[in-house]
Write a structure and sequence with these properties.
Elements lengths: L1 H13 L7 E7 L16 E3 L7 E11 L7 H15 L3 E7 L2 E5 L2 E5 L1 E9 L5
């Protein structure tokens, strides 16, 4: 029976039914000043303070470790930047932490994460 349970866990993990990475959520904020299309990750600049160029915040991106994760905080940030690139963002402003404490039978764990804004630079400033 134990071998069957272990096999089930392995199968569920392989198909992604058990959290093992970074959860990403996206919410619309404002209309984009121009049409968005996916871009390369290298084109998305990450900011910790707003850029000097005029911009519009078009999406909110929340990224957080999942409970059974091997992702470290660098992986969380990289996946957040990847999502920003998929959305067509010019930049990603990291607005703050989005940590969550989960408590289970064997103690607690802090799931680290961030909240950010997908920004699109105004056409006039290109």
């Amino acid at each position: 029976m134990r071998a069957m349970n272990l096999s089930l866990v392995m199968v569920l993990s392989a198909i992604g039914l058990i959290g093992c990475g970074t959860a990403i959520k996206v919410a619309d904020l404002n209309p984009s000043p121009r049409a968005l299309s996916p871009r390369s990750v290298g084109e998305v600049k990450v900011y910790t303070i707003p850029p000097q160029r005029p911009f519009t915040e078009v999406k909110m991106i929340v990224a957080r470790q999942e409970a059974m994760t091997n992702d470290d905080i660098d992986a969380v940030l990289n996946k957040m930047k990847l999502k920003a690139a998929e959305l067509g963002c010019d930049g990603l402003i990291i607005r703050g932490a989005s940590n969550e404490v989960v408590v289970g039978q064997y103690g607690g764990k802090t799931l680290q994460g961030y909240v950010g804004s997908c920004v699109v630079f105004d056409e006039a400033s290109d």
